[in-house]
Structures are given as structure tokens and as C-alpha cells.
Model the fold of this input.
Amino acid sequence: MKRHAAGLLIAMLAAAVLIGFISVSGTAQDATRRLSFAIATGPSGGTYFPVGEAIATIVSHPPGADRCETRDACGPVGLIASARTSSGAVANVFDVNADRADSALAQSDVVAEAVGGKGPFRSAGAQTHVRTLAVLFPEDVLVVAAASSGIRKLSDLRGKRVSLGTPGSGTLATARAVLDAAHLFRRVQASGESADVAARNLEQGRLDAFFFVGGPPVPLVEDLVTRGKAVLVPIDGDDRKRLMAQTRGLAATAIAAGAYTHQARTETVATHAVFIVSDAVSSETVFGIEKALFNPANRERLAASHPSARAITLETATVDLPAPLHPAAVRFFAEAANAMSHTASAPRL
Done:
């Protein structure tokens, strides 16, 4: 009887441990799988990939990592994150919604379309499993035209050879929205090159213009403009008003004079890079990632990944959210706001 009772006790303890393990991550299988955390980004030459790599390094918590001895400098113990290249924002949203990727970087206008089941998501329907971790940094919508093309306003694109971005990219989704608002979508000779190929084709006279969405400055655009090979075309007036009325996640902005050498101030619109996550990711994982991402100890490492990453701050991380926050992100930002308010109200000695 004693042997039977001992065996029963061991079985009960094993079950309790298993139940506790499952409660953290949803299922035992999920908990094991979630030790690997994938961040879908974009092409290796874009903005998203280096920022995604930096985030993956920051939130990873391998055994014995010295930097993780600093409190909340890393994500949950055992988490190994990795950045992977992808076709872009639209593909990323589909992958996160289907739990083929744990998380991703994507444009806020694309995420808003996904949640609403609009634009490139119209056929598939609303992507209901996408949650926001943080709004990261602004991205300009650029229309880059060959200097010799005579294109100086959107209406000049009519009949021209225009690259809209590769299939699955956020650039393609945004370019279509811009052209729709300007009543030009079926009035251009559209193609779908990557940005580097489009830039080369434009310089060699095989393309008249291309769209690009990215955090400033965009090196390949700067190179073309500096050498007098290209100009930036404004998105303004009634075209911009219609665009913003039709598409969530966009804001009116202007590229400052000199931001691109020899280029005058240029009206346009901007979106934001957003860190999104599947709602299947556990609250423990999300909360730990948030603490590491916004830990001041990681600020320099994050900023070094790309100039755009310098704009990642707690103050702007929840502004104009295109999709609901993950519940653990709600908790993190509430606690962060409470801590900041206590710090601000503390008496100075």
C-alpha cells in the first residue's frame, strides 16, 4: 500500500507540474515550441531586417548570457529569438495570423487593412489573431521618379512605367492605395521589382518611377537623388485627402528640405513600423519581451541597428494603434505609465 501511495503521489506531482507548465504557455507543446521565437521582417537590404535582428538579440535569453544578469535586460529565460527575411508586411501579417510566425514587423496601414479585412486582405477576410506589441518608428511613403522622366506630380505617372513593390510587400499595398486615391491604378504600366532592382532599372532608363516605404534616410533613394538621377514626387492636395480618408494608418507629413541632398521640401504621407505578435503567444513571453525591448540598458544596441530605430520610445509605442494590444502588452504599458508618473511626482531632494 505504501508503494502504491508513493506511486500515486509521484503521479499527482507530475500532473501538477505539467498543469503548471501548460498554464504558462497554453499547451505543453506550445510551451516547448515558444522557446524559439521567430520575428518575420523583410528583405535583407531593407529597414526591417536589421531592426528585427537587433530586437531578436535583445530579447533572447540563452543560458549563461552575462548581459542578462542585468534585470529585465533580456526576455524570459530560455527564449531564443531569431529574425528571418520575408517578402514584406502583407506576407508577415498573414504568417502571424496563421501562427506561422510568432511575430513580425509590418506597416501600420497594412495592419489596419488586415484587421478590417480590406485591401490585400479583402479575399481572405479580417485577420483576427494579430495583436500589437508596440508602434516602433515612422516610415515615409516615397514616390521616386527618374529626373529625366518629367514626372513632378502624381498625375504625371499616367501611362508611365512604375514599380509598385514586390508581391507580399507593404510597399505594394500602400502604392496601390496611393494610385487608387489618385485614380491612376489602372493607368500606369505597373511592375513588381524589389527596391534595389527598381532603382537600377530607373537609372538605366528601363523604369520611370518606383514606390518605396521606409524609415528615412533610405540609402538607395539618397544615392539616386544626390547624383541627380531621381527626384521625389509629392503626395499632396486632393489626392492625399482621398488617400487618408480611404486608408487607416497613414498621416500627412513632409520630407524636410535637404533630408535628401538637393531635394526641396516634399509633401507626402507616412505610416509606422509596428511590432505585431500572434495572439497564441503566451502572456509571460510577451511581457518579458516588452520589458527587454524598452529597457534603457538596450537603448544603444537598438539605436545602432538603423537610424529609424532611434525613434522607438515608450512615449510613442501606443500612439495610433492599428490593431489591439496583446493583453500582456496592455499590462506592461500600464505598469510603465504608472512607474513614470510616480517618478515625475516624486519630490526632489
